[in-house]
Amino acid sequence: MEKYDIIIIGAGPGGLTAGLYAGRQGTKTLLLDKGLVGGAGLMVPSMENYPGFELIAGMSLIAKMKKQTEKNVAINEMENVESIEKINNGFMIKTSETEYQAKSLILATGATHRKLGVHGEDEFKGLGVSYCATCDGLLYKDKDILMIGGGNSALQEAIFLHNVGCNVTIVHRRDKFRAEKYLQDKIDEKQIPVIWDSVVEEIKGNQMVESVVLSNKKDGSKEELKVQGIFIAIGDTPSSELAKELAVNVDKYNHIIVDKTQKTNVDNVYAIGDVTGGVKQWVVACGEGAVAATYAYQGLEHTNNRDIN
Ligand code: NAP
């Protein structure tokens, strides 16, 4: 069985940065991801707030990060971590491929899309219902679609959909957005229509989505809009199941609780990025990755047990 100093679970921006730091500190580190490197980061159409890049697509930045990190540590994609068990001198990690041992763990498991929970959402997933503008946007060129949500993701994706030629309208449940001002300004500038104070009640169709029933929260009125697609960007749910199996403490929203060193309540287990809640930004996840890898390294040095082979 392969033994490592540090295993990082999740290869988004935070996990990749943790891998970069851990590798450069000379630890034997493995980065595992159940999907492709980048995770949800691959779906970000464009970013204007990652220092050093005035404008860059998530996919491009992930490609650069991956190239840099894999010079320093091994990265295994498409390898799902099925269980983690605490053992005498570390952790036993069972994956879809094999088993590993590690002295320290860094959990960078991110979060998954929150669902609306309305009738038709599951039935028409992939048939007009999408959670990823970058992946599916082009399929809806020249079509009438709705973007649901009022945060950074919804506005960013609405701009992307508009730019690829979709007739996109935003539906938001309140009368103001929570997204950053620069995104709100772009929505105005591009004259993307917004339906305020409204929620989706039902998604209807035959083989594919054909219409959406909206309900106005202020006056209770309902309207049925003919649309070919509906994109949903209403936040996320932390992926903290593995952490909970290890008796790692989470808050009431299931975010992993960490201290300033990104350490959890369980010795030698660190957590970073969206799974810990807080400010969910790439630059924050990357910073947390650097912090966790540094303290994980120091912990190994301190206990003088880096050599587990
Ligand atoms: P978010 O900031 O949590 O916003 C979710 C939006 O969906 C809110 O406007 C919320 O409405 C709405 N919503 C929630 N549940 C709903 C429901 N059941 N029905 C209708 N609307 C619902 O989520 P996000 O936009 O995905 O962003 C997640 C995190 O990533 C945030 O911290 C964000 O700042 C960050 N992010 C950053 C960037 C960037 O760097 N520019 C880009 C994307 C995301 P209310 O406003 O009424 O609560």
Automatic annotation (TrEMBL):
EC code(s) of this entry: 1.8.1.9
Q: Which GO terms describe its cellular component?
A: cytoplasm
Keywords assigned: Disulfide bond, FAD, Flavoprotein, Oxidoreductase, Redox-active center
A single MF term (Gene Ontology):
thioredoxin-disulfide reductase (NADPH) activity
Asked if the record carries the keyword Aminoacyl-tRNA synthetase, the reply is no
Q: Gene3D superfamilies from the xrefs?
A: FAD/NAD(P)-binding domain
Give GO terms for biological process.
Answer: removal of superoxide radicals
Q: What is this protein called?
A: Thioredoxin reductase
Q: Please tell me the species this chain comes from.
A: Methanobrevibacter arboriphilus JCM 13429 = DSM 1125
Organismal lineage: Archaea, Methanobacteriati, Methanobacteriota, Methanomada group, Methanobacteria
